[in-house]
Structures are given as C-alpha cells and as structure tokens.
C-alpha cells in the first residue's frame, strides 16, 4: 500500500534576520504515514514537531524554509506544488486542527458561514446542500448542530470549538488530517474526549492522521505509530506496541516514565498533569513559532 | 452597546449646549452693534425711535440670560432665527445647502476608499516591498499637502491645460470628479497606512492560518477574514477626524464655487451675518456627534463580540 | 561619525531636519538675502517672468515673489512656534496640576477638556473668525484655545501613571515638596511625549493657518503669508501658475519636514508604540 505521506531526510532552517546565517530547526526527519494510520509525533516544546507539521501543510512562516529533503503527499512532490494547487488540496485532501481553539475560527463570522465557505471553496455545491453537509457534520461531532451553525465562535466553549474544528477538518473526507496539539489548550477531560472523537472520526473517514503532541503517554492509547522528536531530530520511530514494550532510546524512556497520567488512574482528576498542561500553555509556543509571530512586524 | 449609545446621546446634548453657549457668548462679544448693522443693510436713515423699536423686537434690550433662554427655546423648536442679510429663516437656508455638502463628502469618501482599500491591502500583503513603500510615501505627501493647493493644481491640469473637466458648477457626475478628488486624495493615503497596520496585525492571528489551512482563497482570506478586524482602527480614526473632513469641504466648496454649507458659512462670515454662522456651527456640532454615533454602531457590526457584550456563555 | 550613523539609520528624518534647518536659516537671515522689499507695490512691474532682478517673477501688484516667499517663511514658522509654545505653556501646567492634585479640580478640568475637546478645532476657529472678525490674531487665539487641551490630557495621564510609582512615592515620603517632585521626577517623564505631540502638531497648525488665510479668514493682505499669497494669486493662476505653485510648494515643504521630524522623534523617543 502506498503511503499517504512520505517525509525523507527533511531539513528546515530559519533565516536569521541579518546575514546569511541559517539556523537548523529540524534535521534529517523521515517518516511515513499509511492510509488509515495514526502517527503521533511527540516531543517537548522546541523539538521541532510543529515545524514538521507546518512543512507538511506547506504553511511555514516566511522566515522558515526547507533546506533539503523531500516531502511527498500521495506520491506527489509537495515542494513542487504551486500555491494554487496547495490551496486547492488544503481543506479538501488535507485537514487541519490547530492548538489554539481561540484561533480555530475567524471571530467575526458565524460558524455556519465559515463551514459552508470552506465546502463551497472545494466543491461546487449549492448553498443549501453545503448547509446540509455542515449541519450533518456538526451533528457527527455531537454538537447541537443548528445552534452552533448560527453561533459566532466566541459563543462556544473551547471544547465545542475544537469539535467544530474537527468537523471542519473531516467534513470533506480528506486523505490526511494534521492535528497540531489539538488538546493542549483544553482542560484534561475535554481534551480526552476530543482525542476520542478524533480517533472515531478517523475510523469513519478512513484518513491518515498526523497527531502532534508533547505528551507521549497521552497519545499511546490511540496512535498506531509513535515518532519521538528531540532537538529537531527523530530519535525513535516505532509501532506503538514496540514503544510500549521496549523503547530503545533513553529519551523515550524518560518520556514514558515522566509522569502518571489521567488514563492510568481511575480517579477523575489528576492535579499534577493539569498543572503541566497549564504551564505548557503559557510557554507552549515553540521557539520557532515566536519567531514566526514577530515576522510580519519586520 | 446600549450604554455606548446613551453615552453618545448625552454627549450630543452636552456638545450642543457647549456650542450654543459658546457661539451665543461670541455673538455678544462681537464688535459692532447688530441693530445698527441691520439698519445699515436696509439702507434707510434710521431714527432713534426706529432703532429702539428694532432693538426691543430682537430682544436685545433684555438681560443676557433671558436672551439666551429665549434663543435656546427657539433652537429647540428648530427656530434658528432669521438671516440679517437674506431675511429668511436660517434653518431653511442651511437645509438648502445640506445636500450639496453631503454629496461632496460622500464623493470624497468614495475616492478615499477607492484608493485606501486596495493600497492598504497591497501594502499589507507585501510589507517592505514596492506597494508598501509607495503607500508610505503617498501618506507622507498626503498628510503634508495643502488641500486647497492640490485643488488648484488639479484645476490647472485637468480643466485649464487638458480641458477635460469643468471647474465649477454642479449637477453631473463630471462636476463631481475634481471636487471629490481634492477632498479624497489627501486623506486616502493616511487611511491606507492605518488599514495596512490593522491588516498586518490581523493577518498574524491564528485564525488566518486556520482559514488558509482550510484552503480558502487568499483574496477571501484578506477581504472576508482579515479586513473586518483591520477596519476597527480605521473607523475610529474616521470618527475622530470627521472635523477634518468638514474643514476640507469648506475649502473645496470655495475652490469650486460649490453650493454647500461651507461656502454659505464663509459668505456669512464676510457679511457678518451672525445667525447664519451660529446655525452653521450648531449644525456641524450635531453632524460631528451623529457621525460618532454611527461609528459606535459600526463597532457592533464589525465586531459581534461588542454586540453580544452580555451574550451567551463564552 | 555619530551624525553619519543617524543619517544612515533614518535618512528621511535627516532630510526633514535638513529642510527645516534651511527654512530656519531663511527665517533668521531672510531680510538680508532677499533681493527686494516684499511689500513694495510697483504696478509697472506686475506679473513679470523670472529674471535676475526677480528670481521667481512678480505678482499681480508687481511685488517680488521670491522676497515674499522668504518673508513668508518667517511668518509661518514664527507663528507656529508662538502657538506651540503658548499651547505648551498653558497645557503642561494644567495637566501637571490636574494629575498631581487630583480630586475636584481634576474632575472639573477634565470635564472641560473632554467636552470642548470633542469640538473640531476648525469649528471653533470658524466661529471665532465669524463673530470676532476674520484676522490672524483671532485665528491664533482659537487654535491655542483648542490645542492646549491635548497637552493637558497627555501630561495628566502620564502624571497619573507615574505618581503611583515607587520612586515618586519615595520622593514624596522623603519629604520632597510638590514642586521638587514635579521638577525632578515628573517633568523629565513628560518631555518626550510632549515633544512628539508638538512636532506632530506644528505641521497641523501651519496647515490650519495657511488654510484659513487662503479662505480669507486668517492673515490679511498685504501680509506675505503663504496661504494668503495663494489666495491673492488665484485669479491669475491660469496665466501665471507660478503665483500659486511656489507658495503651495513652500507649505508642502515645511509641513513635510515637520512630519518627517515628528516620525523620527516618535520612533526614537516613544519606545512603547513600536
């Protein structure tokens, strides 16, 4: 079976503001994702996992650029795509869910408008059909469809927004969904449910999923394959079962034994983990992303 | 939202009170005796008795606070008095001129938007590149060029040298072009810069990345997703500088012999026709506050979060 | 070396400073370099083309256009300077007092500033010109009457935020008199924003004076104020466009240099807005 995504020896560099210095952000990253497979890319903040996701999506900020390596999507060379082609595939063949639920939808426009806009961007459907499709998917993610359709994003809770974002990502039955820390900004329980939903929808649509997370044990329950990143390199990439049984790399071991997890406990709350989640949210921007934030001001 | 509007209405009352007191005071401070002026205009050799009669007819023999009270009573009943010169109700004269100024202001705003929006979008799309530098240069020149001078230059070039457009008069679209350009060109670049700053800010937001990741076409991302937030500062500055726009209409009306409020006011100043000046100032005050009320309302339209201040659970 | 560095850092600001220096030079030494008296009417010499005698030609009354323009620099810059200084002299103390003393005084002052500040300065200037007569003094008075409020407001807000900071509290606790505290701690803080505000305002004030003079509501003939000169030259501009081109260009250059300097100052002094 041909993989959906093939990443080979990928290097991404940051262009320093002055001079010709190039700071390597990820080096020699290789992995494959097959249809229906969920690959979890795990690493701490700044390990380069979000940059990898950005490269796969073709949405790297201007200050970053791909130095070498190859990126294939369904056998096609992603790096050779025109902007127009990339836009055409984003949303229809490649779905995305981002970390920050605040930013998953434009705040001034109603959810329904944004969903139908997306549908009609990729398929020539009538407004009514597009609306039906959007409502159907809002229903799929267990939301009160009509009400959410008519709401502004700020009228929904964080969990509701991430569910809506999931619906948007899956709605057009893409071949790949990239979920960049979709649960980080949510509280633990809500996050768990969103991940469950992600796995459930993946089954239904049959797409491949690239799940980015900073928490190894959090994703082990659902991912088929786990790739562990550290300092811009993949240190270990194995089937989840193998990781669980005998992780070879010492760093993976550290991550595995780092902390107890909610799912390990029968109790409903785990204060330690929650604390980790919230502190992660504060500094939760990779060094690279803060560079990207600054970029437009230059 | 409702609070904002009530606050604006209170401000309207306050500003009108302030303006009315201010102009009334100035009128009393004005050199020369309006009664004598009036009689002089009529070109009759007035007797002492006639002068006294007119004085009491106008109420000028009563104490000042009584005069103010009766004048403000009239204003509240839409009676702004009669023009010394034309002997007609001031309100009627002003209302005749409102459409002219309104048309001019709209023309200027249209020119401004036609230039500012594309220029701002381009400058934000390509920061640090040619459109950006161009808009910066134009903004510098635009905020430094005297509008009356630019109007003259436009007349010289397009009416006199090229003979394309009429210099004065109203009625057709062709008559609108030069006055609207004079009014709109100078302010356009400044708004383009504001729009650029707002757009750069909103383009760096997460939701723009999300929209792009959904494959939405770039022009839709710019206009439908990013522009909305970028308009807030633009609208705010527009509300604050509406006085500027009105000053501009005065100049343009004089330059192009355009029958509007501004030219009426300038004529009235030269003729010392105090009631007309007073009426003009009051009307401008109402206009300024009304525009700011519209600006407040537009916030609610631009950003629904303001509209739903106490909306459903966030 | 240092100068060269700043020029390279912000060439536009340097350009503004160079232009303004030239204009200030003209203002100071104008009377010695102009070839003719700016006010002498010579009907025999009217509307002359440029020559050695009259570098920019003559106007409709045979006056030397170049001499009038140079004289106009003095008027324009002089008036703007007078207005800005007066405005600062009124606005800064009021703002200091309002912010430092607070209470009733502050409430009343700010009520006035907020209410009257809502009026566009042009409306005030029009009413003053309308009722008290259209002349330069009244125009300047009305500009001052509106502009001081902006300064009072800015100064007050800085004082309010600085007043509660520890170093000011310490100075007060240590027994410094109100005057000492203001002079040592508050005034240095307000200088930068006031400079930026003033630099921005100078361009606006020059423009407003020129505009009113152009409408005939400011400087009156034969004063060689640039706006008034434009108005004078208006009937002849089709045959002798120089009469309107040069004064307008002069206004443009002054205002541009003020705006360039204001931008430079803002970038350098106001770190917060960046």
TrEMBL record, chain A:
Domain ABC transporter positions: 10-256
Localisation: Cell membrane
Keyword Oxidoreductase: no
Annotated region (Disordered), positions in chain: 278-298
Keyword Transferase: no
Main location: membrane
Annotated membrane topology: Peripheral membrane protein
One Gene Ontology MF term: ATP binding
Similarity comment: Belongs to the ABC transporter superfamily.
UniProt-recorded name of the protein: ABC transporter ATP-binding protein
Source taxonomy: Bacteria, Bacillati, Bacillota, Bacilli, Bacillales
From TrEMBL, chain B:
UniProt keyword terms in alphabetical order: Cell membrane, Ion transport, Membrane, Nickel, Nickel transport, Transmembrane, Transmembrane helix, Transport
Domain of life: Bacteria
Localisation per UniProt entry: Cell membrane
Pfam family, one: BPD_transp_1_N
CDD domains per UniProt: TM_PBP2 (cd06261)
TM region(s), chain numbering: 12-30, 102-124, 136-156, 176-195, 230-256, 276-302
Keyword Transmembrane in annotation: yes
Residue intervals of the ABC transmembrane type-1 domain: 98-295
Membrane topology: Multi-pass membrane protein
PROSITE patterns: ABC_TM1
Keyword Transferase: no
Predominant location category: membrane
Family: Belongs to the binding-protein-dependent transport system permease family. OppBC subfamily.
Subunit structure, interactors included: The complex is composed of two ATP-binding proteins (NikD and NikE), two transmembrane proteins (NikB and NikC) and a solute-binding protein (NikA).
Protein name in the entry: Nickel import system permease protein NikB
From TrEMBL, chain C:
Keywords linked to the UniProt accession: Cell membrane, Membrane, Transmembrane, Transmembrane helix, Transport
Chief location: membrane
Superkingdom to which the source organism belongs: Bacteria
Alphabetized SUPFAM superfamilies for the sequence: MetI-like (SSF161098)
Transmembrane segments: 12-34, 75-100, 190-215, 244-265
Official protein name in the record: ABC transporter permease subunit
Family note: Belongs to the binding-protein-dependent transport system permease family. OppBC subfamily.
Membrane-topology annotation of the record: Multi-pass membrane protein
Places the protein is found: Cell membrane
ABC transmembrane type-1 domain segment(s): 73-262
Alphabetized InterPro entries for the sequence: ABC_transport_permease, BP-dependent_transpt_permease, MetI-like, MetI-like_sf, OppC_N
